Structure formats: structure tokens, C-alpha cells
Amino acid sequence: MYWRERETLLKLDRDELEEGLETAKSRFDGPVAGLKNLSLEDGHGQKDHCLSVTNDSSQLVGAPRPTSRLGLDIGPPTSPVDVWDTGPSSKVTTVYVVGILKAQAFPETIYTHPSHPLHLVVALPSPKIDSWAYKDALYRLVKAIRHRMDQSTMILLRPGTTQQLDQVISTNEKIAGSLPERLNAIPPPEDTVSSRKMIIPIALLLLCAFCLDGQLADNEELTKSSISNVLLSLVGLWPDSNPPRAALKRVNEVLLSRER
Question: Buried (b) or exposed (e) across 68-85, using 16+ Cβ within 10 A?
Fold first, then answer.
């Protein structure tokens, strides 16, 4: 709510702020009711568990709208939404995102799933620990998606597993290093909120790079403001998923660069 109203709120005098906040809340059409039970400990006021990948299509959320060509499997949003509308003639490319610390053990970053050639497994470095490699992974992902993209392509983002990452690497003879060394580069499984914070920047990147929900027109020149608006539409669904600043900075750099 604040980010949608920030320009108005920041112009208010201190004695006008309380009334201004109440007015802003009355205009907000997002999931305000759901925020009442939101806890800082977890995403839903309940004990948090590791996020498991679901094969139940009813759990997939179109982001930021049910008709978007991007779907997320990161748990239910704060307020109920309609099921992701994939349509009868669509082909869905699934991108499994696995968080790693540094990229040295995963030099290619983007791997084709051995059982599903259209699907990808991404070894995503930490934006704080290995910032350059994180940005490089974003460039590589955009390039890989572009090769698979046509008018009927839809993309599903979901957290992957270390087992999936090992499977795709073991089929790639060009990757040097032993299995123990690779596994040592992977942090322990993350909780639901951490997984969302990892996935949301990737969702923002793909939504803006490929205009997947119609919010941006094809070939529209991106600005920090237009990127911010797309981010707000995502965070409005999962208020606990506001990504790290380091990740958003790298996403902005990729989206605003000529290399994209």
C-alpha cells in the first residue's frame, strides 16, 4: 500500500500523516484483510515448513494475474486468487530454481532437465555473496528462455531441489569437480519465505523481459518506475516476499542494459 501511495504520503506534513494513511488504506484494493494475521516469524501466522514442489495445478498462481503467461509455485498468496489459466493449447516451460552460495562449482548455471528438454534447472548464486555471478545467471536465463519462447509459451517458476541439480550436472560431462564438492556449495534447504524471496526477483525479470502479463507493451522502453510497478503487483500477492535489495539491483541492471 505504501509504495502505491508513496508520492502522496511523502508530501504530507507530519500532522497530516495519520489522516493521509487512513485515506490511502481506504483506497487500497490489495489483500489488506489478509495482512491482519501476517506474522514476522513466517508468511501466514503459522509454523513455517520447507516449501515442497507440488504437482497440483490448483496450487499454481498466475503472477501477477491468473491470465499471465507466468505461473509461480511458491505457496498460496495472502488472499485467495483464481487458479492460473494456462489455456488448452499452451506449452509450459518449467524453471526449477536452486539457491547456491557461489558459482564456481556450477560454471554453466543454466541446465536443461534431462527428462524434459523444454524445462530448465537454474543454479542461482547468492546476490549478496556472489553478486557478479548472480547477474551473469540472470543474463543466461533470459537468453535460455528467449530460445524457447513463442506466443504459446508459458513459464512456471518453482523452487528446485539439490537432487535435481545433481541430476542435471551428472549428465553434463563438461562440468568438472566431484559430487561432494558440488554439494558443499549448496546451502541447507530454505524455508517458504526464503524461497519466495529467491523466486520473486526471477519472476520480475521474466515478466518485464518478455511482457508475460500484458502489463508492459512489447518493445516498451523499461524504466525503474515501470519495473517497480511490476514488483509491487507481485509483492501485493505475497507481502512476505519482498526480495533482497542486492537481488533487485542486479535485476534492474539486467533489464535496463542494452545487452538484454
Answer: bbbbbbbbebbeebeebe
